[in-house]
Amino acid sequence: MNGKKIIRSTCKACHGGCGVLVTVENGVVTYLEGDPDSPTRGTMCAKGLSSIQHMNHPDRLTYPLKRVGERGEGKWERISWDEALDTIGNKMKGFIEQYGPNSVCNSQGTGRGYGRYTVRLGNSYGTGNRGLGTSHICYFPRLKAFEAIFGVNRLYCDYHGWGGEYPKTQISWAKQIEHTNADGEMAVWFLDSLKHAKNLIVVDPRATSITNQATLWLQIRPGTDAALAMGMLNIIIYENLYDKEFVNNWCDGFDKLKDRVREFTPEKVSEITWIPKEKIIQAARIFALEKPGCIQTGEPLDAIHNSHSNALSIIAIMAITGNVERPGSMMCWVPPDTGPMEVFHWEIADNVTKENLEKGIGRDKYKFRPPGFCHTETVLRQLREGNCAIRMLHQHGGNFLFSLTNTKNVYKSLLNLEFISIADQFMSTFCEIADIVLPVAHWLEEDDIWDMHPGFMVRANNKAVEPPGEARSTAWIYLEIGKRVAPKFWPWETVEDMLNYQLRKADIKWEDFKEIVMLARTGKDQPYYKYKTDYWRKGGGFPTKTGKVELCPTMLEDLGYDPLPYYEEPCESYYSTPELAEEYPLILNTGGRVAYNFHTQFTNLPWIREMQHYPRVQIHPDTAREYGIEEGDWVWIESLRGRIRQKANLFAGMDPRIVVVQAGFCYWEKKGHARFLTSNANVLTDDAGPFDVAIGSSNYRALLCKIYKVKDGDPLYDPIDMDN
Amino acid sequence: MTRKSVFRDPDLCVNCKACVIACKVKHMWPPYNTTGAMAEPEGVNLLQVYQYGPEISMDGKVHQPFVSIACMHCEDAPCIKVCPSTAISKDPETRITLVDGDRCIGCKACLWVCPYGAPSYNDDGKMVLCNLCIDRLREGKKTACEAACPASAIYISSPEDISKLRSRIAVERIAKGTME
Fold first, then answer.
1. In this structure, which topology does domain B73-129 adopt according to CATH?
2. Fold identical between B1-29+43-70+140-180 and B73-129?
3. Which of A407, A574, A664, A718 is the most buried (most CB within 10 A)?
4. Nearest residue on chain A to B143, judged by CA atoms?
5. How far is it, in rounded angstroms, from Cα A299 to Cα B106?
């Protein structure tokens, strides 16, 4: 490994997938920069670039560990990979034999191009209880709504101009892609395309950084997005601004939608959303008339108990304005020759028996979900009550003590699992209560195929250097566990064999793919107007039951749900719970994100931490004055579930009644419970419901809280009451 | 190579801090000096981004510029004049301001006179300054910050080019109504 070389690879610091050039000298990564010859044209973000510090962190896990003390006591013993994997494999097989496959759950954190391994593992041993975690509040509601309406599980904003046109009108709805969450669109594509846009409409309670460039800012009350979307539908339909050609020829259920949104007049919607009615009318008219247009939808739309309706109503705006499959609008990208990489897990989905799927926890209640995913809040409640079918969890990345609602309950629930094994790069607070911890390689240390959201491209993660100690790649870990529990479905001897298998449709081997780094269908190779061809259906149409865009989706109807969007007040609000609002008079929004953290990741890096040492709660200056709070003061934020402290950041770019708490802030340097109870936004969020009736989404984004200054002598955090 | 000038557009900047970390990857080697303990760190930054506002006008327009600050490579640089050990000089070709760490005595006089507060100081007290990635420019590459920026908010070019660019931006934004 002598000398200097430059390796082309793909960043996995979030789930974006930017092209990178990695300089390696004598086996050490000495430089990291964007790859100018990649679709992200050489740009990178603070998260990806700080990977050079992340991978070299002194706290990286380097050996498999077995817990020898009590859960959370921090006593570990180094064990061999064989012992670790055999223990996990034997535990899985033991539980499966005794209680059936549904007793073993396997799950993951945010997708970093490895979802197909975790899901294949679950499918291979046949569990109907996969995917404990956050899918129901992040991405699935949008995906499922797209699938219900169009028959394909995602349309993306066409920022690329491949069809000869860029979006003229863009809506950024509950999204800060310029900072975070590159799920299908990437910041650089969005920002580049703005040069061609006439209108940018931002829907956000706060003045986000992109709001500076907006032609129109709809300052929405948190949790009322479905009302706004139905208000816009009302204007577009009743002012006759919809695309009649597209609606008449290609849509089904228009009249039912029309009836449903009739009552959502601008006046009524203005009252619900706190947005002046003129602005609602203006936004609807601009989007309907200044075409093509696209709408970027963010995760906050999913993280609330009205999630499927949020998605249905916003997607209906795309449909009735004809912003579907035309250049510069919403596109369903055709994958490269590899085909969709998810086939790797779909292809063995039948191995899970119908009975096990039906017995999946929460399946009976929340049916509008991808099969095999258990309902998180129900599982956790059952664990606390001691009647949960799940006995073992194998987890890859992620930290439920930060990502799930009501952290204290999550902690108590997880303790009731009989066996937990986790693969991670650092000893997270979740790892601390596990039985076996596996050290995972960093993305700069592993070979794999990256296949995240954008759909039109598949890229290579090329190993630049050896991982520290005995850390191993994700693909290797899954192959080894798979071989132990379901060898029939994991027949490959090496990781390279498994990668070759995944690339076979493109007729390319890993050793060649790693050199070319990317297979993509872009430019003229990317077909538009596919519904006018035989692509989805002979003679044209969409791959839905009716062959049309279903504005009143039969998929929901068949499952017994109201197929049309509707609006429901947030479960805690001035209007739904006025008595609660007397004690908790402010709206709690946990959507605070910064561009240099990805959930709990990166707050252990000096480069990142020096930009922000403490988490911040954004409070309007008028509200702060009322409470005697000044910039930088420690403030308690308290909800029905408990309280946390963050430092006050006075921010005038929002309604004075809203408090925005920063999410995911992990004090990696603190020991024990202080790490996840001091400032963790999800101590405050709701796990009791009501949840979204169809998907089961819980409430993160629109709750009620009170704030007050931290006094001398206050505890750092309120401990968990284990008896209650 | 011609004279180099800097323009960072506060209206296009989205405060993502990519430039801040790109600069560290380029100039702060080795990336690790931590002992694992995390005291309140005082970083050495050649480049920082500051947020102003937001101010919101009656019609709902948001004024919230993000200003990224590093050495502006002043033509008639006060730091060069004031430096008692002649540690600061101009690259004759590009007019980039350069620091000679061996000559710097760490007196911080440059910080007193710099209108941008650009000088930063290493653990050894010696001044460090943005050198516009002069080695990258010589190789025909963009600076680390310009290359990383997803918002196209950073331009390093000749003063003439930047002047033209500024005029064009002004015209475009007036036409679009985003600038009065």
1. Alpha-Beta Plaits (3.30.70)
2. yes
3. A407
4. A33
5. 49
